[in-house]
Amino acid sequence: PIQAAKHIWYNGKLVPWEKATVHVLAHALHYGSTVFEGVRCYATAQGPVIFRLRDHTRRLFDSARIYRIDIPYTPDEINAACKEIIVVNGLDKGAYMRPFAFRSYGEIGVAPKTPPPIDTVVAAFEWGAYLGADGLENGIDVCVSSWQRLAANTIPALGKAAGNYLSSQLISMEAKRLGFAEGIGLGIDGSVSEGAGENLFVVRDNVIYTPGLANAILQGITRDTVITLARIHGFEVREQALPREFLYLADEIFLTGSAAEITPVRSVDRIEVGSGKRGPVTEALQSAFFGLFDGKTEDKWGWLERCDDI
Ligand code: PMP
User: Fold this and answer.
1) Could you read off the pLDDT of 26-79 as tens digits, one per residue?
2) Which of 82, 154, 232, 269 gets the highest tally of CB atoms within 10 A of its CB?
3) Residue 260 CA to chain centroid, in angstroms?
4) Rounded distance, CA 184 to CA 170, Å?
5) Residue 310: pLDDT band by 50, 70, 90 thresholds?
6) 3-class DSSP state for residue 204?
7) Taking the model in full, what pTM does it have?
8) Domain edges within the chain
9) Quick one: DSSP state of residue 212?
10) Is the distance from CB of 218 to CB of 56 less than 8 angstroms?
11) From residue 140, how far is each of 25, 134, 135, 160 by CA, in Å?
12) Which atom of ligand 1 is nearest to the CA of 157?
């Protein structure tokens, strides 16, 4: 179970954790109509900081726009709510955060004449490494899923909506059933897309490759962070379509996400990646990334959002 915190921000009010409930006939529960974010807050010497909060909030509003969900708060109000929920819960050691908005309880039906009201929530709680602390250091075993990713112009991959995660569930559950830590989805054209909840990078001959906008990926904020850090460290980064077999020829592979952070992959379909351990490029990018939070990497981009200035 989730490590409960004291309060959840629910439609502008602080509600006790166990009281933050919704009616069983809420639209989102039946039709997947939630747009959401997964954000991390890190402990630093300056207190807890929310990583790239404004970018996450922007993506939340982008997802809402795609689905014509009219969030009854401004981005600034959501940002303030995110900071407030860290402070009131005393989450100084860091947290995982879920800001989201959904079609709530009203009329039943896919697109009823009177649209259901929009509920807006920000929750935060303590959460460790998504793919395991051991995975961050030693890498994980993944497989290519028998399930492919969302096709263009079906369910939009750029929107981070609850319904998309039916695809992710099929991919991730299959992988775990077969003894892997995570599954990789191919696009319907057969090229590499992403993990069930992570973007994917491949390193070969010191060049870093990652699938792009046309490959049914979520535009990950950690992905963007890694691309930025890699380029300032002098690496060439190419955003392009990758054939499946490129995974088997990689020197290094890693997955990125707010939950997964930067997780090395040590095998794909039981074929070792490089030497079967975390590689030097992955390690360099991990230290650049985690260095943002212990002051070793200068935050030139204003990515760290303090919580004490609401
Ligand atoms: N792809 C999918 C399908 C995801 O769920 C996530 C996690 N939000 C990512 C990629 C990584 O995105 P981010 O780095 O913004 O968390």
Assistant:
1) 999 999 999 999 999 999 999 999 999 999 999 999 999 999 999 999 999 999
2) 82
3) 8
4) 11
5) confident
6) strand
7) 0.97
8) 7-125, 133-294
9) -
10) no
11) 39, 8, 5, 25
12) 3
Inform me whether the pLDDT recorded for 21 exceeds 80: yes
Residue 83 near residue 124 (C-beta atoms within 8 A): no
Distance (Å) from CA 225 to ligand 1 centroid: 12
Ligand 1: atom nearest CA of 164 is 3
Question: Could you give the angle at the alpha carbon of 170 between the alpha carbons of 22 and 151, nearest 5°?
Answer: 95
State which fold the 7-125 domain adopts: D-amino Acid Aminotransferase; Chain A, domain 1 (3.30.470)
Residue 199 Cα to ligand 1 middle (Å): 6
For domain 133-294, the question of CATH label 1.10.10.10 is answered with: no
Are 85 and 67 in contact by the 8 Å Cβ rule? The answer is no
pLDDT at 265: 98
Confidence of residue 220 (pLDDT cuts 50, 70, 90): very high
ipTM above 0.95, yes or no: yes
| Ligand 1: centre distance to CA 183 (Å) | 14
Which residue, chain included where needed, has tokens 């992403």?
194
Angle at 161 (CA atoms; ends 159, 166), nearest 5 degrees: 120
- The answer to whether residue 160 is catalytic is yes
Nearest protein Cα to ligand 1, atom 3: 197
DSSP state of 237: E
Residue 258 CA, closest ligand 1 atom number: 16
Active-site entry in 13, 19, 113, 160: 160
